[in-house]
């Protein structure tokens, strides 16, 4: 039996048979592998790209795979992967796990110390806080669109979920109070009560939402940039595909106006869109609006026991179990490009890592202005930056409060705009509030609740301040919001506070590595629905983007879809999934032409 070489991650290049004993040479990571005593738990030969479990003397199980090219590469001090993913937001994690389960050799690099990005968590004084939204779409066990459940299941994970009876409780101008109940009939009956003259309009608008959702939910969701898959779906389900093609260039506001005349009801639809897109209905793609409006009643909103951050942790664990690798505190400084082809990345510590494909989960602004040379931005990206701009960021407050300050049966999620509809999109005017401990008490010390409050804010408000001015500004904004919540919902809130920490757009920029702390892209004008949103391939060969600055945009479920699409396209380009070069070229040109229409 031949001597074997292994990299730090136990990459083994040789053919082995059952019970072969072999010696390994470990790399710099300091993994203590005994020189003998390792053996396969599985028989059969170790073939290229095949995963095996190796059992060491009293060691954990390791996944290994054969990579014949590793020997030469390692000798010159470089590593080679099939794919490197920059960033472990939900988009990056889903792309990485979907590749790993296809036996693609993938390395995920995350600059922070835990996975999840905006969907991560942090702990303080016995509280476990969700960094971003606590409203989880796509997390049921029904249909095809439950992309969070599916992403976990792909790596053998299933989480315990707590159903949320009310997606959100709206507190809007002129006393308009709407609870979005889990059951669709209960929700629309609230709207009928307030707008009896608009019953037909309500049925018409929500009816169109359901047509879109049902079409989406009937497809197997994969890369819309892969022509063989697309063709297959058209043949299997022509009606659903044509429905989606019809709605692809449309926005929710225009469709709402076909059915509804009442200005207050139209403002309400704006609020529904604003909470997921940070723009009004006229600028929100119909497919995205329909997706969230219906999924909350179809699969329902479900909260994972232990907090949203657990999802990313489970995916990261699943990634490693399936042969992928993840490195934390790995801050990518630049993407290495040779002859307009991405060939790897360089970390801030100078280390270069090479791969056949590079996937960036950083925003497109970060990818094309920081990780790549801004002055060489491809025309396609310039076009994107003309049609889409950075949305504002959020000012967020994480609080711990005594439980008695919340009235009995308080809903988990609230959205508040007190006075004037025209202020819907103005900074600090709307308040988003989640109280995840209403569903999962384990997130706070006994007798306490978590309040996660956020409001739209621009980074410019926080630039150029001294440390004292910056802190004082954060505290003043937080005081003002707490006062508003005292008036509207919870008298005595300030006195009942046991913990409070405020974050500004600068906090988002710093911890989430998002340019200006942006929540994601928003259309610069009235978009043609989703037509102008870029998919995963880029103008740089072998470089892909994933996450919320790709189709279909912001939202955990949306970036999960982006991850699924990205992995499928990358796998096709690596030859792991079916593809056809001529059809690929044709579709890519067609999609580029579509984008010029947007
Ligand atoms: N506070 C909020 O509520 C909030 C804010 C923004 C986004 N979001 C939501 O989060 C989701 C976005 O998910 P996503 O997957 O697009 O991205 P993400 O922003 O969640 O994750 C990106 C990850 O990439 C890492 N990263 C960035 N640059 C890097 C570099 N150079 N080297 C190494 N790592 C790097 C970041 O640390 C982060 O973990 C969406 O659901 C969006 O709606 C929520
Ligand atoms: C050729 C071509 C291209 C085409 C043809 C046709 C077709 C086939 C098409 C298809 C299409 C598709 C499949 C599509 C898909 C889509 C999807 C999936 C979408 C999704 C979306 C989602 C979303 C947007 C989501 C979102 C969400 C969010 C953002 C959330 C958030 C939340 C929050 C913030 C919370 C709030 C809170 C309070 C109130 C407290």
From TrEMBL:
Class in the EC hierarchy, top level: isomerase
Pathway membership: Carotenoid biosynthesis; lycopene biosynthesis
Matches recorded under Pfam families: Amino_oxidase
Mode of membrane association: Peripheral membrane protein
InterPro entries registered for this protein in UniProt: Amino_oxidase, CrtISO, CrtISO-like, FAD/NAD-bd_sf
Main location: plastid
Catalytic activity: 7,7',9,9'-tetra-cis-lycopene = all-trans-lycopene
One GO CC annotation: chloroplast membrane
Domain (Amine oxidase) ranges: 90-486
Cofactor: NAD(+); FAD; NADP(+)
Gene Ontology terms, MF aspect: isomerase activity
Domain of life of the source: Eukaryota
Biological-process GO terms, alphabetical: carotenoid biosynthetic process
Metal-binding in keyword set: no
Record localization: Plastid, Chloroplast membrane
Protein name: prolycopene isomerase
Species annotation: Riccia fluitans
